[in-house]
Amino acid sequence: MFREKIKELLAQKEGKRALINEKTNEMRQLLSNEDASDEDLTRAKSLRSEIDDAEKEVRSIEDDLKLYRKAAKGNPAPHKRSQNNEDENEEKRNFNAYLHQEHRDGTTGITSSDASVTIPESIIYNPENEIKTVTDLSQFVQIFNATTASGSYPILKKATAQMHTVEELAKNPDLQKPEFLEVVWKIATYRGAIPISQESIDDSAIDLTGLVARNAKEQSLNTKNAAISAILKGFTAKNIDGSNAIDDLKKIWNVNLDVAYNKMIIASQSFYNWLDTLKDKNGRYLLQDSISSPSGKAVSGINVAVVEDDLFGEKGEAHAFVGDPYRAVILANRKDLQVRWVDNDIYGQYLQAVLRLDVKKADENAGYFVTVPSSVSK
Questions:
Q1: Are 92 and 207 in contact (CB under 8 A)?
Q2: For residue 339, what are the β-bridge partners?
Q3: Nearest CA-CA partner of 5 in 66, 92, 74
Q4: How far is the C-alpha of 341 from the C-alpha of 49, rounded, in Å?
Q5: CA–CA separation, 60 vs 213, rounded Å?
Q6: Residues 187-207: pLDDT tens digits?
Q7: Which of 40, 87, 148, 312 could pair with 36 in a Cys bridge, judged by C-beta atoms 3.0 to 4.6 Å apart?
Q8: Which residues pair with 303 in a beta bridge?
Q9: Are 45 and 72 in contact (CB under 8 A)?
Q10: Which pLDDT does position 225 carry in this prediction?
Q11: DSSP 81
């Protein structure tokens, strides 16, 4: 009984978290528009209130979860310590205790020699994480919580019609109906499993559960980035001319893109390096510091984010998406990263990770995929 109720509460919490993310993205888009109207600000305030209410509901669900978890364990009363840290530590202890129980014999999977970096030979117990920063592309696109396996998402097109003057008391003329672009999506399932041998579990001195779960989260980020970058690469291609490189780039965001778009540059490392070397006629670098930019840099007021070269092409190739990624791409999120330990025939455990989502192009005119030839970028 307790287990089913806990599962139900976790599902409710997941749904509320997805709703909060969706409303936060919408609020951020409204507030990031320099020409935000009074209606936009009113809507943003309403969203902030809805987000606050949803966060209160999440906290209430978390309180209920604590009660049911303690009831399931049979503990009469909670300890007097930080509840959030205690819950997190409790989950880790439960995972590790589960891992260290006896399992059936077998021979396949990752061996103890493969996991030797976590098995102590001296006083150094914790492995060092690889120093690697990955930009999360999903923070720039439009995300909505999908409640079905497929469907369509309406995108409101920009209004082009105008109102007309009329005589006093004359009948109101008809306004042009709003036009919508229907983006069809279908959820795909991404999943995999990481096997850990029981020998490495028994002999490891660190928190193996946290280590492997963190690795699964990194793979989840890589999966989303690959799906989003595939869409960004499909936008209209433009090449930068070597003789007028920065002028060509400025023309894209000044002329080719509608002024209403909230523009930014998502650059590969090589493209960013090219931008970082550009100077004006007085010898000053064009790339300037910006506290609002993901990379901390902006060029001509346009914020810049950086991704690995291989997301947009090959190593050493200079590519970038220039435009409004929020209008350009939608992400239908059916189930965010879900991980769980599952039994298998090996002598050990499998950590199973699952993502369910779809990524689609939304506004065809919201950006360009720009390439700087190697003769220019080097």
A1: yes
A2: 353
A3: 66
A4: 37
A5: 26
A6: 988 887 777 776 776 676 666
A7: 40
A8: 264, 298
A9: no
A10: 93
A11: S
